[in-house]
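yo, Arginine--tRNA ligase is done. seq:
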Amino acid sequence: MNIQHILSEKIKQAMIAAGAEQNVEALVRQSGKPQFGDYQANGIMGAAKKLGCNPREFAQKVLDNLNLEGIVEKLEIAGPGFINIFLSGEWLANNAEQALNSEKLGIQLSQTQTVVVDYSSPNVAKEMHVGHLRSTIIGDGVVRALEFLGNNVIRANHVGDWGTQFGMLIAYLEKMENEHASEMELSDLEAFYRAAKEHYDSDAEFAEKARNYVVKLQSGDEYCHTMWQKLVKITMVQNQHNYQRLNVTLTENDVMGESLYNPMLPAIVADLQAQGLAVEDEGALVVYLDEFKNKDGDPMGVIVQKKDGGFLYTTTDIAAAKYRYETLKADRALVFSDTRQSQHMQQAWLITRKAGYVPDSFSLEHHNFGMMLGKDGKPFKTRTGGTVKLADLLDEAVERAEKLIAEKNPNLTACEKQAVVEAVAIGAVKYSDLSKNRTTDYVFDWDNMLSFEGNTAPYMQYAYTRIRSIFSKAGINPTQLSGNILLNEEKERTLALKLLQFEESVTTVAKEGTPHVLCQYLYELAGIFSSFYEACPILNAEESIKQSRLKLASLTADTLKQGLDLLGIKTVEKM
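structure:
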């Protein structure tokens, strides 16, 4: 249930009835302070100003036209024209009951857009490293939220599978296969790439063959295309292993590499030129954008085709946006890549719109993110200054989690320990990132991320298992509880209200691409449950109250589990 949306719509209708414009916005937010109610409508003053009337008088007119019967306990005008909203305890209890008995915790599947989400984007013949982590897990968290709300989501793994380097890679793959007399397995992609580059730089004959293979590949030569496909497949098999370890939902079927758009590029450039958008400049084709200025204050030029005939990333991204609208029939297109690509994406999409390839109604969204830093405040590297391979990072997480869990609970069976270690290790790496606002840089710190205190995955996972242990220790089946939810104590009411705000946080993640909002919600929920548990005895309470509190506990566990699952983080029943 999205309480905020319900209240906003009701108040918007009342504001219009009170004389506001049809397109007025009702700004309803959680107040955060009990004395100001559960929510506060503070869009009243803006509407009153436009109408030229007293805000408190307008607020009273809004109340006179507002129908929140059965939903609110009390409404009051406060300050210069806010409306404080106190929700009905009975309404909260009834909706908490419905959420407990609902497969989706009371969430309405009201979103039906087709959304293409571009994330992860590793390169062929290179091993995934920590630089791919943020795009992969932030994008996947948003994908899960979008699907949970009922959207049709198309995952697009924009793999770097095209470019001049593939002539070199094909030539080296050919060399290795000939020397080994059988199809080789590229177990170390980084070593393969380095060796190919060394041969290209030192062997003139090899370099000439590599350049010829580039031309043949781009011309559709069957042999080169087959060798290229081998490289793509070998790379994606390794990447898929990383995705599975990370509990990320990408599959080989989601690959939409740069090569997909290559056939579209000549026609796009020709059309941009025909429209007068692209002009020749020193042999290259350039689009000059008045919206972007260079250091001299002149319109910035964006190259869409080099003088040697080659295309650029900008051209590919124009084609990708066009493809998402025309072929995939999407309503929204989201791209998750780092902040350094922000201007590039803005320029590519501005050209896309100027050319008329997508309408204004088509939403193009660059959800950028900051860098992963070490404790020294510099980009996260190995001790020797090299790039950290993603597989090595996950291996280290498992090693550290094994030590941690062995100390915390040595009584786990081997099977239980393996499940807990995997959940904690991968969960810690992911949650540490997802809990930070994606637009900022964040410091990678093993000690913090594996702590059982604070806003961490181990704390959240432990909070879940603690609630489940209430039922297991008492031998109670949470699906066989009876009676109604009763909210007689303030801590019970506070917990029920927080539980019913789950949809608000998920909706924000889907709308704004901000998984940290869901992390913060879950952390606050765990804290509110802890306060409830300390103040409100469960198993020793009178039977009707016991059943009610057990229901609140069960709904809390279900919400924590579902919330963590939307972040791609596993839970275990015992830690």
